[in-house]
Design brief:
single chain, 250 residues, alpha+beta, five-stranded antiparallel sheet, 28% helix
Length: 250
């Protein structure tokens, strides 16, 4: 089933990000940083290189970054919905001491146990000669993730960092991924073998209907016989680096 998971990476390359940071594509999730809270439910937000002021349907934390779906209503006002807090460590993926390529995932697909064992040995070796506290904390988090049964990988491709977390189980695989243009995606992949359905089945959680359609349209490319996709609940990270960093520093 791991080979099916790697196909998700192809989806990340289907969309390109607009070079004009003052405009937004209402069909794709955008990143917003909360600069300040104004009166009531109004906030000053940073969108790319621009700043905007708008209302939020939920309370936001100043200094935090959120994924959000965004559109303009009939009055021309910016409306936010489905705001999802970005885990702190996601904004620091570019600083992670270990980065792989999509091609490296072939090793994981070929022999998962050997890949994990080699990865753990490498991380332990690097940990013993870490050059800074941050590097030590980041390497420790990757090791702790493995100990919790989650393979956390930072993939660098065309100058962009992607996060892929995989939790293999005996009957299925849980995963969480962050792609620069599609935002967070989570899900479960498993094999179904009954009178009605046979083959690889996937359940996805995504940010909005646009991402839902992208995955549905490419289900055959991904090798899935059946795909169920929901966008009502925000995707959830499998392993929170932020919590482990707090444990280490504490």
């Amino acid at each position: 089933m791991l080979e099916k998971l790697s196909a998700i990476n192809k989806i990340a390359k289907l969309q390109s990000q607009s070079n004009n940071t003052k405009t937004f594509n209402a069909n794709l999730p955008i990143l917003l940083k909360v600069l300040a809270k104004n009166k009531g439910d109004e906030y000053l937000l940073k969108l790319g290189n621009a700043t905007i002021q708008t209302k939020s349907p939920i309370a936001l934390e100043v200094g935090k970054t959120y994924w959000a779906n965004m559109h303009k209503n009939s009055a021309g006002q910016i409306v936010l919905h489905n705001l999802t807090l970005q885990p702190l460590f996601v904004s620091h993926l570019k600083d992670m001491p270990l980065k792989l390529s999509f091609e490296d995932l072939a090793l994981l697909q070929h022999d998962p146990k050997a890949f994990v064992a080699e990865l753990k040995d490498f991380l332990l070796t690097q940990l013993s000669c870490a050059q800074s506290r941050d590097e030590f904390s980041q390497l420790s988090s990757l090791i702790f993730s493995l100990q919790q049964g989650v393979i956390s990988l930072v993939i660098s491709d065309e100058g962009k960092e992607h996060l892929i977390q995989i939790a293999p189980k005996s009957q299925y695989i849980d995963f969480y991924a962050v792609f620069p243009h599609l935002g967070p995606i989570d899900g479960r992949i498993y094999t179904q073998d009954n009178a009605k359905n046979k083959g690889i089945v996937a359940q996805f959680g995504v940010m909005n209907e646009k991402i839902q359609k992208i995955l549905q349209d490419h289900a055959e490319l991904l090798g899935f016989e059946n795909v169920t996709i929901q966008c009502q609940k925000p995707p959830k990270v499998l392993f929170d680096f932020g919590r482990s960093l707090l444990d280490i520093k504490g």
